[in-house]
Structures are given as C-alpha cells and as structure tokens.
Amino acid sequence: MRRTVLASKPLYGSALARVHAEGFEPRSLAALPALRRALQKAPDGPVLELGSGAGGVLAALRADGLAIQGLEPSPAFRRLARARHGALPLRPGTVDTAPEGPWAGILALGEVLNYRSPEGTFEPWARKLRRLAQCLMPEGVLLFDLMVQGPAALPGEGWREEAKWCVAFRFSEQRRHGRREIVTFLREAGAWRREAEVHHVDMPTVAELEKALQGAGLVYQLRPAWGRYALPPRRLAVEAWRRA
Ligand SMILES: C[S@@+](CC[C@H](N)C(=O)[O-])C[C@H]1O[C@@H](n2cnc3c(N)ncnc32)[C@H](O)[C@@H]1O
After folding, report:
1. What is the number of the ligand 1 atom nearest to the C-alpha of 21?
2. How confident is the model over 151-168, as a mean pLDDT?
3. Domain that holds residue 166
4. Atom 5 of ligand 1, nearest CA residue
5. Predicted TM-score (pTM) of this structure
6. Is 189 inside a domain boundary?
7. pLDDT of residue 158
8. Which of 54, 80, 96, 228 has the fewest beta carbons under 10 Å from its own?
9. Sign of the CA dihedral running 100, 58, 60, 167
10. Is 114 contained in some domain?
11. 81 touches ligand 1 (CB under 6 Å)
C-alpha cells in the first residue's frame, strides 16, 4: 500500500546535508564491507536503499554492479548526491512510501528508521518492520542501524568544527522520544551561513525491537558493529533475513 508523502519541510537543508556528507557519511561507508558480505548471500534481484543521504553507499554498491534504487526525502541531499556521484538512481521518497518490491535487499543506514516525521508522527516499529519484511523476496535481507533506549545517557550537547563548517547539537530524550536541535554554520562565498533544524527520533528498547523483528517473521542478528566498524553507544547494526 502506498502512503501519502509528507507535505512539510523535509529535514536536511543544504548546509546540514553538506556537513553530513563530509563529516558523517564516512561512518556509513565504513559499513560497506559488512553490507557487501550480507548482500552476497541474498538472492539475485534489485536492492532498495532508504534515506540515501549524499549517495555514497548507493554509488559504491551501484559500482559493484548491484541493481540498486535509492529514496531520499531531502532535495538538498538529492542535489548533493548527483553533484558528487553524477546520475544516480535516486528518487524522492520516505520509508513510508517505500515501493513494495519485491527486493532482494533493503538498506537503511544512519538511523534512517528512527526518524519521526517532522510533525512527530511515527509508524510503530512492529508495523514498520512487518511492512518492510513483506517488501523482501524470500531469503532477502533487511540491513539497518538504529538508536535504542538504554541505561547510558547519550551526550546532551556537542559540536564539531572544520575549516569550512561547524555543527553544534543539543540532544534530549524522554524514554522513546529523542529530540536533537542542530545548528550548522557553513562558509560560502566568503560569508558564514547559519541553518537550524530540529530532528525527532523514536528509539525502541532492545526487547521491543526483537519482538518487532520476530513478529515480522525475520531471522536476525543484532550487533554493536558492522564488521570491524564499531557503532557509537546505544546503536545497533541489524541484519534481518526473510525466511525462504
Ligand atoms: C543521518 S542521515 C544518513 C544518510 C545516509 N544513509 C548515510 O548513512 O550517510 C539520515 C537520513 O535519513 C533520511 N530520512 C529522515 N527521515 C526519513 C524518512 N521518513 N524516510 C526516508 N529517509 C528519511 C534523511 O533525509 C537522511 O538522508
């Protein structure tokens, strides 16, 4: 079933998209060896990436010869992906509008599945994972990372500065709901441009996540790393297979 695309302003304006591409996409690229190992065990067929961002993973897997399609809601990210990688099979779209497939693999890296809509709505984990599982071919694989609830508090604030940009964030959480305020400064044409966004995420407990994966009929492994690449605290890498 197709759902309505959100009418509100998408997340990731042009400044944050650029900062993400330069400063944070390398984390997802570090997962590529583990992603490739999993995809090699999947059936032959097309692969879908949700929330492709600046397109690095999409471009790398496409260069491997995979028939991969990306969906990305942020126009700024789609423009940046094309500027960095040329013509890419990347379309506007969200997790809620994922085409039904069937897909040999579905990827969602960089906590894509955690995001609430800008209005704060969120498809419950059990329903979301069941729907995505139904978009897989038998023995197809769903690969994603996500933030989970946990006893250790995540950093409440932080910042990072590079020559041409600076990004600062403030994070607060109340049980399943995380709220991240992000302010980005980007040096452009000799001046600094400021952009601010608020992101809302939904974080399941590990028990809720496992229940949702089981309810979706998926056989899964949860790990704190993609192969040798360790994820930050309270993040899990999920490799989940649809049964034959
Ligand atoms: C942290 S970035 C990760 C981008 C890229 N996957 C990577 O690993 O570099 C989160 C991505 O999720 C996308 N996103 C947020 N909400 C989404 C939704 N409902 N459906 C699809 N993508 C979404 C954002 O636009 C952004 O590209």
Report:
1. 9
2. 95
3. 157-198
4. 53
5. 0.95
6. yes
7. 96
8. 228
9. negative
10. yes
11. no
- Please give the structure tokens belonging to residue 128: 């979301």
Q: How far is 36 from 124, CA to CA, in rounded Å? A: 29
Angle between helices 125-134 and 206-215 (to 10 degrees): 40
Pocket lining: 72 vs ligand 1, CB cutoff 6 Å: yes
The CA distance from 220 to 153, in Å, is 26
CB-based contact 115:128 (threshold 8 Å): no
Give the position, in ligand 1's atom list, of the atom nearest the Cα of 49.
Answer: 6
* Domain containing residue 89: CATH number: 3.40.50.150
Omega of the bond leading into 102 within 30 degrees of 0 (cis): yes
Please report the atom of ligand 1 found closest to the CA of residue 10.
Answer: 25
Residues ≥6 apart with Cβ < 8 Å to 18: 80, 165, 186
Where are any strands of DSSP class E within 46-164? 47-50, 68-71, 90-91, 103-108, 136-147, 157-161
pLDDT of 4 higher than 60: no
Q: Domain count of the chain? A: 2
CA-CA-CA-CA dihedral for 18, 20, 23, 24, to nearest 10: -160
Q: What is the mean pLDDT of the chain?
A: 95
How far does residue 189's CA lie from ligand 1's centre (Å)? Answer: 28
Burial label, 41 (beta-carbon count in 10 A; 0-12, 13-18, 19+): exposed
Q: Atom 13 in ligand 1: which residue has the minimum CA distance? A: 51
Q: What are the residues facing 48 on neighbouring strands?
A: 69, 106
